[in-house]
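S.,

Sequence below, as promised.
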Amino acid sequence: MAEKIKLSNVLASEQLSPHLARSVIEERLRNAIVDGRLPPGTAVRQQEIADLYGVSRMPVREALRQLEAQSLLRVEMHKGAVVAPLIGEDAVDTYELRVLLESQALRQSIPLLEESDIASARSYIEQLEHETSHAQIGRLNRLLHMTLYSKASNQKLLRLIENELNEEERFLRFHLSSMGLGKLTQDDHNALVDAAASKQVEEAVGVLQQHLNNGARVIRNYLNKQRAV
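The prediction came back faster than expected:
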């Protein structure tokens, strides 16, 4: 079972300097969770990680808190921190929240986007149109959206959005094909970037909201099928 996986079989043992320990541990664990080496339900024990990296439990504890805030870990009774499910029952609510957050970020960002930002966004779309790796599709999707929001003035807003996109990236890596997502979404992406390039703020927001609402509908259908199994 997933929770019996030994972290030492996934994370290479390494002596870390104390001032880098928290950030390095957070990054290593996040990568292992996102790419599936640490599947849902895996127990993530503080002492085991501290022993692997030759540090105290304090930086480990801080790293785990950051990953919990990103919805990659959750704390369970009698188990402690475990890798969170790929998608929770509140996923549709999350999409509704994303509509609000990302619409606001897009409104703030579009007037300040430069030609280089638009070029980067179009480059991500071009890569998405030819990419077949689900892992890369999830990554490119996140980078595309964050490029369009990047000039938003509210940095806390951007952090909240990136956390949600990180969670979606992890989910898409494992369920993209079964959910029927992929190239069909590029029409929305192209329309979104076209509107952003022409500084048509409300048109871009409308495309984004339709795009996210479509995503929520697919997630809802997926969850309904999972309950029926």
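The chain has a mean pLDDT of 87.

Coffee later?
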